[in-house]
């Protein structure tokens, strides 16, 4: 199976999953989205109201802010694989329960193994706890550490930062620093270099072509 096929198969399994009680209240499951060969993966907590309606991760206010944060790191949403520790909405956006996290864990682990990202950005304490069970987000946010051959970067959750102005500038700074970490640790892919070298204005490229 290709990585795309594996991810599609996981998404199908999630859509009919009944391994925890969250399936009773879900409208749509939210398996995650992004390229199967993404070098960067973001892992949030769980779908909220709009994600449950649309079946896509981070489409509400926190998602808009996440896109802005990714831009600070020099990334677009389209080049990142974005998912959550639980794939169905906890009612009323409550914290996911230990049994819900455990029921969903295999899906996330298979997604990580399939995509094999160079950097995993955890958003909030639940995804951070997968890698650093004893860490406190206040002490480790923004700092990358190697775990099993990849860099894990714990970040404050964008929704928390939206609600607490003091955290907003902290998370913005952490994502700017993530951009540096990416430059130092993730080699640019040939297609990225090519794209960067292409003139943006088609008129300009026509002029250049006509020179030869
Ligand atoms: N918050 C999350 O943690 N995940 C989402 O998909 C949306 C909001």
Layout of strands and helices, then pairs:
Layout: H1 3-15, H2 22-25, E1 40-44, H3 49-54, H4 61-72, E2 80-84, H5 98-115, E3 119-123, H6 125-131, H7 137-140, E4 145-147, E5 150-155, H8 158-163, H9 165-185, H10 190-197, H11 202-210
Parallel strand pairs: 1-2, 1-3, 3-5
Antiparallel strand pairs: 4-5
The protein binds uracil (URA).
Residues 44-48, 51, 57-58, 62, 84, 159 line the site of uracil (URA).
Keywords:
212 residues, disordered C terminus, single chain, Uracil-DNA Glycosylase, subunit E
The gist of it:
The protein has 212 residues and is an alpha/beta fold. The chain has 11 helices and 5 strands. It has a single domain, classed as 3-Layer(aba) Sandwich (Uracil-DNA Glycosylase, subunit E).
Which stretches are low in confidence, meaning pLDDT under 50 for 5 or more residues running? 199-212
Mean pLDDT: 91
CATH topology: Uracil-DNA Glycosylase, subunit E
* Beta-strand percentage range: 5-15%
Tell me what the structure shows.
The protein has eleven helices and five strands. It is of the alpha/beta class. The protein has a single domain, classed as Uracil-DNA Glycosylase, subunit E. Uracil binds next to loops.
